[in-house]
């Protein structure tokens, strides 16, 4: 019954990659969306790094 860690996605990375590729496409780089898969890593959250992960998420939310 104990949880020692978890894995989280990185929604801001998903958004950044989406906008970057769409901008390339709109500027004429039609290959930027052609069947490519984009792999976004996940983050492992443990007791050792939970404060760091929380601080980074807070920073991404503009300090909220």
Describe the 3D structure.
- This protein has 64 residues and is α+β, with helices and mostly antiparallel strands.
- The relative contact order is 0.19.
- Strands 1-2 form a two-stranded antiparallel ribbon.
- The chain is elongated, with a radius of gyration of 16 Å.
- The two termini are 32 Å apart.
- The longest helix is centred in the N-terminal third of the chain and has 16 residues, at 11-26.
- The chain has helices at 11-26, 50-60, and strands at residues 5-8, 43-46.
Order of helices and strands: EHEH
Strand order of the largest sheet: 1-2
Helix content: 40-55%
Distance between the termini: 32 Å
Low-confidence stretches: none
* Cα radius of gyration in angstroms: 16 Å
> How many helical stretches?
2
Shape: elongated
Q: β content, as a range?
A: 5-15%
Query: What's the rounded overall pLDDT mean?
Result: 84
Structural class: alpha+beta
How would you summarize this macromolecular structure in one to three sentences?
With 64 residues, the chain is α+β, with helices and mostly antiparallel strands. It has helices at residues 11-26, 50-60; strands at 5-8, 43-46.
